[in-house]
């Protein structure tokens, strides 16, 4: 059968650079379809058009239905879809990543497998959480000790602020109801944050399992990155909910976290922080290789050589 059907996919040169795109657009309770080279979201209020050339990731929340044509357009435009809970507080599944290049994933693997580089990333993570401290010479053991003191102080400050009694973090991952109210709220809030971070990690093409501080779990990197935001997002929210608890700790906390992150700023910030952690300073913001459909062949001497060539040197 000759010819093709549907709108012509946008050419790679027509697409907006990822640094200039809308990082994430969240949709819920609507039908997602395609109109030419735009994604449409339809509900009882009408139709909204979203140009896919300017879209990084589409977060599909509860009540969304998406068509085959819409998913094809996202793929052609270098965008991705991630199925999430309400306001992104759960991660369920994802399509392809935003990255056309494996550069960020390779940087993650290179750093996690080199002891010196891995420690450097761990130090950067600590600096993001607790700025204005010189940790350039600290070991992992020293970082853990300093983090423990800082986190303990954060819990105490929120306890004093809200009047919620606090002794220590005490929970059983297999028995949510066994903890007291504040520990249940903390567990629920952190679970929401893990979902948000997981969505960003897979959208960028990174591995959720290659962690720098955490290790041995399929979500080790998720736990690493989520720790960057607990002090300012989930811990205050959990104490606020525990101080005015009038519903189940899980449900009320989830809704509170949803409201706290509804402007989407945490998504964009998370994407920037991941890139800053994994790429050398002089490479942050360099987008050319991110968007080019380039495949190389590995070479042990030069690193890589061009693909699509015949390297047979034999003569006839």
Automatic annotation (TrEMBL):
Record: residues binding Mn(2+): 147, 214, 227
Needed cofactors: Mg(2+); Mn(2+)
Main EC class the enzyme belongs to: hydrolase
E.C. numbers: 3.1.-.-
Keywords: Antiviral defense, DNA-binding, Endonuclease, Hydrolase, Magnesium, Manganese, Metal-binding, Nuclease
Keyword Metal-binding among record annotations: yes
Pfam families found in the cross-reference section: Cas_Cas1
Stretch forming the signal peptide: none
Entry GO MF terms: endonuclease activity
InterPro entries noted in UniProt: Cas1 (IPR050646), Cas1_I-E (IPR033641), CRISPR-assoc_Cas1 (IPR002729), CRISPR-assoc_Cas1_C (IPR042206), CRISPR-assoc_Cas1_ECOLI (IPR019851), CRISPR-assoc_Cas1_N (IPR042211)
Keyword Transmembrane: no
PANTHER family, A to Z: CRISPR-ASSOCIATED ENDONUCLEASE CAS1, CRISPR-ASSOCIATED ENDONUCLEASE CAS1 1
Family listed: Belongs to the CRISPR-associated endonuclease Cas1 family.
Alphabetical list of HAMAP family matching this protein: Cas1
Subunit structure of this chain's protein: Homodimer, forms a heterotetramer with a Cas2 homodimer.
Function summary: CRISPR (clustered regularly interspaced short palindromic repeat), is an adaptive immune system that provides protection against mobile genetic elements (viruses, transposable elements and conjugative plasmids). CRISPR clusters contain spacers, sequences complementary to antecedent mobile elements, and target invading nucleic acids. CRISPR clusters are transcribed and processed into CRISPR RNA (crRNA). Acts as a dsDNA endonuclease. Involved in the integration of spacer DNA into the CRISPR cassette.
Protein known as: CRISPR-associated endonuclease Cas1
Natural source organism: Arthrobacter horti
Lineage: Bacteria, Bacillati, Actinomycetota, Actinomycetes, Micrococcales
Recorded name of the encoding gene: cas1e
């Amino acid at each position: 059968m000759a010819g093709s059907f549907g709108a012509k996919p946008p050419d790679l040169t027509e697409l907006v650079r990822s640094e200039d795109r809308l990082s994430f657009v969240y949709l819920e309770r609507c039908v997602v379809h395609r109109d030419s080279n735009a994604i449409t979201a339809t509900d009882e209020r009408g139709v909204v058009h979203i140009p896919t050339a300017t879209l990084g990731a589409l977060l599909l929340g509860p009540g969304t239905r998406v068509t085959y044509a819409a998913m094809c357009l996202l793929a052609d435009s270098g965008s991705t879809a991630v199925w999430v809970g309400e306001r992104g507080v759960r991660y369920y599944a994802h399509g392809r990543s935003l990255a056309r290049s494996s550069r960020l994933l390779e940087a993650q693997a290179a750093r996690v497998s080199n002891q010196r580089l891995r420690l450097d990333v761990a130090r950067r993570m600590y600096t993001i959480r607790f700025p204005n401290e010189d940790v350039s010479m600290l070991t992992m053991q020293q970082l853990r000790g300093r983090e423990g003191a800082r986190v303990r102080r954060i819990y105490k400050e929120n306890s004093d602020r809200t009047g919620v009694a606090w002794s220590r973090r005490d929970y059983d991952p297999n028995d949510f109801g066994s903890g007291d109210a504040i520990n249940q709220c903390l567990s629920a809030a952190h679970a929401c944050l893990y979902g948000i971070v997981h969505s960003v990690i897979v959208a960028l093409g990174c591995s959720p399992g290659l962690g720098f501080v955490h290790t041995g779990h399929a979500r080790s990197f998720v736990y690493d990155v989520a720790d960057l935001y607990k002090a300012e997002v989930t811990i205050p929210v959990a104490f606020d909910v525990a101080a005015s608890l009038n519903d189940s700790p899980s449900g009320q906390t989830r809704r509170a976290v949803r409201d706290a992150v509804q402007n989407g700023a945490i998504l964009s910030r998370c994407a920037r922080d991941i890139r800053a952690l994994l790429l050398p300073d002089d490479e942050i913001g360099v987008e050319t290789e991110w968007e080019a459909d380039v495949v190389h062949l590995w070479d042990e001497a030069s690193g890589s050589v061009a693909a699509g060539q015949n390297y047979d040197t034999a003569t006839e």
